Amino acid sequence: MPVIEVSNLNKRYGERVAVDDVSFTVEEGEIFGILGPNGAGKTTTVECIAGLRTPDSGGIRVLGLDPRTDGAKLRRLVGVQLQESQLPEKLSVAEALDLYASFYPDPADWRQLIADLGLTAQLKTRFGKLSGGQKQRLSIALALIGRPRVAILDELTTGLDPQARRDTWQLVEAIRDKGVTVVLVTHFMEEAERLCDRLALIDAGRVVALDTPAGLTAKVADEQRIWFRP
Ligand code: ATP
Hints:
Elements: E1 4-13, E2 16-26, E3 31-35, H1 42-49, E4 57-62, H2 71-77, E5 78-81, H3 93-101, H4 110-116, H5 132-144, E6 150-154, H6 162-177, E7 181-186, H7 189-195, E8 198-203, E9 206-211, H8 213-219, H9 222-226
Parallel strand pairs: 3-7, 3-8, 5-6, 6-7
Antiparallel strand pairs: 1-2, 1-4, 8-9
The structure holds adenosine-5'-triphosphate (ATP).
């Protein structure tokens, strides 16, 4: 059974159509990419899956549950790392982790998570003083603290230097290797090729292609591929 099933999803903001009849499924244990240019509707789609936004119409099942009616249960099963972290600048890394751990009945051992993510030396550092890469790693830790079965990672590597980007890719693979199903939102074809088992290419709210990275590369015209190069 797929872990995520999205069928004919639609979402508008006023007159603007953000998500237009989007359908796809995500299988257990895969890294599923949602790839597309700015404004394509990627974030809106994953926010609907995570229960953070209500779609206008369409079906969503995550682990057999509907985010619209089973939001509280799903929050424990789905870890979400969204584009802009909303943490207060003055909160330290340890305080942020303690705060997030308090939301879950059986949180992961965050000291281990932080060691795996290479952030132990920053435990007392305030959020506002972290580098971009460190903020990203903290946001991954916060997404994983509830031991989720599904992790939604939105534009994890935007703004990172090449080394930090490669480190982040390894982290995503490590998350998948622990058995967590990953939904990865990205602008970068290179990132999708490297990490994703399958992906949906989204443009102007519509799924343009749904395939493996190799299949997609073969299908999409060169002209269109240029948009997704960093
Ligand atoms: P990006 O890669 O730039 O983050 P995206 O593919 O994630 O883009 P969305 O953020 O889902 O795209 O936005 C889809 C469309 O909906 C865009 O045209 C955007 O301007 C619009 N939009 C997104 N959020 C809102 C909002 N809260 N109110 C009004 N319009 C919005």
